[in-house]
Amino acid sequence: MSYSPASIVTSGALPNLVAIHYEREAVPNLKAQTPFLSMTKQRPLPLRQGNQIQFYTYALLAANLNQSAEGTVGSPISESSTKIVATIGQYADFINSSDLALDVAIDDPGLLQNLANELNYRLALTLNSLVQITADSAVAVDSLVNIQLANGSYLTANNLRSAVQSLVSVNARPLVNNKFGGVIHPNVVRDILNDTSFNGLTDIVKRDPEMAKMLFELPKNDDVISFAGVTFKQTSTAPTVTISGNTYTTLISSEMMLSSPSFWERTQRMVRRTISCSFKVPRNREA
Predict the structure, then answer these.
(1) Residue ranges per domain, the chain?
(2) Burial (0-12, 13-18, 19+ Cβ within 10 Å), 30
(3) Which long-range contacts (CB under 8 A, 24 or more apart) does 110-118 make?
(4) 79-116 pLDDT per residue, tens
(5) Which residues have CB under 8 Å from 259's CB, separation 6+?
(6) Tens-digit pLDDT profile for residues 109-147
(7) In this structure, are residues 149 and 243 in contact, taking their beta carbons and an 8 Å threshold?
(8) Alpha-carbon distance 208 to 95, whole Å?
(9) What span, in angstroms and rounded, lies between the C-alpha atoms of 234 and 182?
């Protein structure tokens, strides 16, 4: 028995068959980790107290190796200090939308919420980038803690030991929990873990069953490597330089290496205001 081909198909003349189902929840975009601000010491700037914070530090006094003459007072020594001034800047963006767009958007949980999430990330990325740029420019302060590897070489456990001890050699203090803080690119983490040479990181951790677990698990972003007195956070925002291929910058931060002024009182007030106003008012539209 023969059959005739279907007379009704999706590419036919019935427009109601050409329909699209729109997913209401946006596909998550790939946002980077923004850990650079956590490498700083935040200093509150009170409201209505100017747009600058002035820090100061005293010069180190050297040891006195000369005996005092008996029965004499001697002469006083002098001391000096250095001031550092941080000036507050303002970075602002906004997105405006009509009330009709908010009412008809298919976004779940809502167009306003989704736009706010994207602006929040832009803010985090801005703060992250400002600290990163400042840290990169600060390497010229003390060349003893600026370690440059030859082009084509890879970061190793020995390099990490040398970097940490170079900070200790200038009496730098740990950032938090008696450890220095670090920011590292995921590709550099790969290089360190792929280094199977004797006394490399993988060679060390594989000898302890508990430590060896990190070799079989997805590296954590906030505690990707903790070794030689430094705990690293990984992020793709770690700067790269193209020199016959990609060259990555790895940061190790100590206490008071970087300071970031913050309007803490204003932040608290904005948070309270957001919480107190987080309600919805139903709107009635007339035909």
Answers:
(1) 36-58+81-264
(2) exposed
(3) 114/26
(4) 999 998 888 888 888 898 898 998 999 998 889 999 99
(5) 40, 41, 42, 43, 53, 55, 86
(6) 889 999 999 999 999 999 999 999 888 887 777 777 788
(7) no
(8) 52
(9) 8
